[in-house]
Amino acid sequence: MGEVDVHALRGVDLRLYEGEFTVILGASGSGKSTLLNIIGGLDVPTTGRVFYRHRDLTRADPDELTEYRRYHVGFVFQFYNLIPSLTARENVALVTEIARDPYSPEETLELVGLGERMDHFPAQLSGGEQQRVAIARAVAKRPDVLLCDEPTGALDFRTGRVVMQVIERVNREVGTTTAVITHNAPIARVADRVVTLRDGQVESDSPNAHRMPAMELEW
Ligand SMILES: Nc1ncnc2c1ncn2[C@@H]1O[C@H](COP(=O)(O)OP(=O)(O)OP(=O)(O)O)[C@@H](O)[C@H]1O
């Protein structure tokens, strides 16, 4: 920022393993969103390298990064980012129309438990339902990696738990490598592996001995 250097991340060394469910935990300002945006090819680090399989994303040109995001990464944000003038089905179809070998919008909306609400507009859906549409949209392209930035941040506990159940289901049934970032520590219990970030650095990185079913979560 002008004269001031802000180090959002410093010396992060991290792997996401295929099929694994990772929760990245950290306080506000610890660098979680920056890290997720770099993993997802939305941002490029000023130094360091990022690999997707054997591809060095830090050396990719903008077209290659677009290709990586379009075909390999699904994003879920805290505030859903649905298009208000389109129905749930049409919001998902926006992605399936440009994807290779996608699921149909109907299949993914069934997967997130919204088979009955496909023709509703976002304003006719609750926050949790809108987030499930956003998850359906992210998953419809069959991404290899699903990245979720505070997916329950705007939701009350019960609704947030349903959203976590849906993410858990996608990870288990579709086999998508999944990373959820949150400041909410109890959510980490559903992960295979928990990474904690503090001041832009990885403070700890360890597997969970027992992965708790999302339906048992409480916070
Ligand atoms: N574009 C930017 N310009 C300047 N500073 C930035 C920028 N993006 C992030 N930062 C700073 O980098 C640090 C990490 O920010 P980041 O958004 O990654 O944290 P976070 O853990 O996701 O926080 P939160 O949970 O509050 O969103 C913060 O100190 C933030 O102010």
From TrEMBL:
Pfam families: ABC_tran. It comes from the Bacteria. Gene3D superfamilies: P-loop containing nucleotide triphosphate hydrolases. GO terms for cellular component: membrane protein complex; plasma membrane. The keyword ATP-binding applies. One of its GO terms (molecular function) is ATP hydrolysis activity. This is ABC transporter ATP-binding protein. Keywords: ATP-binding, Nucleotide-binding, Transport. SMART domains: AAA (SM00382). Residues 1-217 form the ABC transporter domain. PROSITE patterns: ABC_TRANSPORTER_1, ABC_TRANSPORTER_2.
